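Students often ask why inverse folding is considered easier than folding. One informal answer: many sequences map to the same fold, so there is more than one right answer. In these notes we will look at a single instance of the problem. The structure comes first.
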């Protein structure tokens, strides 16, 4: 492992909506999530909350800088990651030397404009913020004559913070934004192997919601590989959302029974209604406050406004559909960004496509659907009960 220049990272987070008591919940959750994210990174880190700031301090300079940054880029709630060096206060001369040496290491090519942005939070420091800006700026120009000052639009903003210790940083790496996981309750994601549902889960998790997932598979019509693909997707989402319990429901007998008893053009809708009911059962059992799907208006027959209404009618919990008004390409763009796309497009069969009718209804009528579902009365409750009892629960991303 290389020695990193930086002593750690100063974490910037948006403070909107996190005033008063909520602020502590927000910060504590953020500290926890950062700790969890760095668990898998080589190095020893301490995450500290200190006077309205969060610091990640590397105990030793040997740590995997790139992996640490990658991990922090996946922690919701962070808006900026600033790799910093921290020095003791040994007087102005020493500070000026340290700033010069930092700039020299960071920017071998000195052909840029800069501005010093000093902040004296400790009032007993002999120079105030303005004096520091001036003195440090002029010392830098003496040391590196190619540099130029630009106070309005500098290429490099050099931050110097005088606290008990002194922080120096000039990089601000963009974080994912959002709210820390665990600050907004839990929801149940209906996770298929497609492109849309992992993105939907990511989007809701970004608002601080912890995820649980339910996947319906139909062996032997759907393979072990199709199931593994869904678990892999859950694992990728968990890089952002933290550990996810995936409930793998064996849906084969329910699908076959619907296939036997009901008109084939209504199969998808009826199947989807049972998926929602079963997902809601687990959601209630595990104290989720809502369901999440990757539905988008008009994408397929089962996602017309009429079909969505028919599916929604069986749910008593709120159903969150974050990609409802997005075009496929917009969803794909997010899938690429969060790294689920390549897994999503692996060509394994899906339980919905196997039993799909050639001409599914696009304007299902609730009364008609209810009449068809009456043909299931004899066995369906028992089949649902068995599906629930035989569900396999797998936790990914621990
Ligand atoms: P996706 O890309 O998410 O698979 P899709 O365009 O294939 O979406 P549908 O197959 O109609 O759409 O499914 C709509 C939504 O229903 C999915 O986004 C997902 O939330 C849920 N869903 C579909 N199939 C399953 C399944 N086998 N297990 C769990 N949820 C599913
Ligand atoms: Mg699908």
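Output (designed amino acids):
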């Amino acid at each position: 492992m290389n020695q990193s220049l930086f002593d750690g990272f100063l974490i910037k987070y948006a403070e909107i909506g996190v005033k008063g008591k909520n602020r502590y919940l927000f910060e504590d959750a953020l500290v926890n999530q950062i700790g969890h994210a760095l668990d898998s990174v080589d190095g020893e880190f301490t995450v500290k909350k200190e006077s309205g700031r969060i610091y990640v301090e590397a105990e030793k300079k040997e740590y995997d800088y790139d992996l640490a940054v990658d991990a922090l880029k996946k922690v919701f709630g962070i808006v900026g990651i600033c790799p910093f060096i921290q020095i003791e206060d040994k007087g102005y001369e020493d500070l000026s030397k340290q700033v010069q040496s930092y700039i020299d290491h960071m920017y071998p090519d000195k052909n840029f404009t800069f501005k010093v942005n000093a902040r004296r939070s400790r009032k007993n420091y002999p120079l105030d913020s303005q004096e520091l800006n001036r003195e440090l700026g002029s010392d830098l120009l003496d040391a590196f004559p190619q540099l130029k000052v630009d106070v309005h639009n500098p290429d490099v903003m050099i931050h110097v913070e005088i606290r008990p210790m002194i922080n120096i940083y000039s990089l601000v790496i963009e974080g994912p934004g959002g709210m820390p996981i665990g600050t907004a309750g839990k929801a149940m994601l209906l996770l298929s192997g497609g492109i849309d549902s992992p993105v939907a889960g990511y989007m809701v998790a970004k608002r601080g919601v912890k995820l649980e997932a339910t996947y319906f598979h139909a062996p032997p019509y759907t393979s072990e590989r199709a199931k593994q693909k869904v678990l892999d997707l859950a694992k990728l989402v968990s890089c952002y959302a933290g550990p996810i319990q995936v409930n793998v429901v064996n849906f084969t007998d329910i699908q076959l029974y619907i296939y036997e008893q009901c008109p084939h053009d209504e199969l998808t809708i009826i199947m989807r209604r049972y998926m929602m009911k079963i997902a809601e059962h687990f959601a209630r059992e595990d104290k989720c406050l809502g369901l999440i799907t990757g539905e988008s208006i008009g994408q397929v027959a089962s996602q017309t406004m009429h079909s969505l209404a028919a599916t929604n009618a069986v749910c008593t919990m709120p159903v969150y559909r974050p990609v409802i008004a997005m075009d496929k390409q917009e969803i794909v763009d997010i899938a690429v960004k969060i790294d689920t796309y390549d897994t999503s497009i692996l060509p394994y069969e899906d339980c919905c496509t196997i039993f799909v009718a050639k001409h599914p209804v696009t304007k299902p009528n609730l009364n008609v659907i209810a009449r068809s579902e009456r043909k299931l009365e004899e066995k369906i409750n028992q089949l649902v009960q068995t599906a629930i009892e035989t569900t396999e629960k797998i936790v990914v991303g621990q």
